Amino acid sequence: MAAACNLTFCVVGRDARQLAAARALQNSGYTVLGAEGAGQADYILLPMPMDAEAADLARILRAARPGTLALGGRISEPVRKAAQAAGVELVDYFLRPELACLNAVPTAEGCLALLMQLRQRTIWESEFLVLGYGRIGRAVARRLQALGGQVTIAARAPEQRAAARCAGLHAAPLTALEQLLPHFDAVINTIPAPVLGAAQLRCLPRGALILDLASRPGGTDFAAARELGLRAEHALSLPARCAPETAGALVAHTVEVILQERAATARSERGVS
Hints:
Elements: E1 8-11, H1 16-27, E2 31-33, E3 43-45, H2 54-63, E4 69-72, H3 77-86, E5 89-92, H4 97-118, E6 127-131, H5 135-146, E7 150-155, H6 158-166, E8 170-173, H7 177-180, E9 186-189, H8 198-201, E10 209-212, H9 222-227, E11 231-234, H10 238-242, H11 244-270
Parallel strand pairs: 1-2, 1-3, 3-4, 4-5, 6-7, 6-9, 7-8, 9-10, 10-11
Helix pairs in contact: 1-11, 2-3, 4-5, 4-11
């Protein structure tokens, strides 16, 4: 990535992923400031996700100069409205398919780390039910399979089930979920919609582990799971928790690509090659 000249990033947030992104941007030649530098920055890098910090982010956006470009992931509606009121342009970098694809890798590795931490047995020769076969579901299933796990995919779309079978996995329609669940003590959900309600959870063996990787509010009735004696964890932000250096570098790279594309478009509109 080409070095930046005399351009400043305000990086908001202090989790390990944001700090890693700040270092990567600095290594590319940007001057990096903290949240207090919003008023002097050319660009603002917002954290991902940002639901819990909407009030703080609104204050930071109000301090920015009108016309400043802010980039964030999974931008919430309150933050979107705050940016509009402040005259700040907002871009959601997580809408970039390449980042969503690459981000599945640290998410899947984080999922495996949790499985090994929370269970008392190997992944090898264990049976896992993965709900959904999108980017995250595929990444998780491949890694479980590579370690000798027996993986069944439950998915709505016939083409996803066919793809799972082609990858050497078992596959079943999501409508068969209640028949499948009694046979698994480890379930990984990747579907961002209600799929594991009380009726489905009652089908699981007592003590079963559920890892829900879907974005808020997830696909699991966590209160019902607790009442039924099931272990259910909403495993959010696994890249930031388990591989922050990689996750931060991916964010920084994606942001730089966005800026390069915008600069190229601006040059083209001015007739400059």
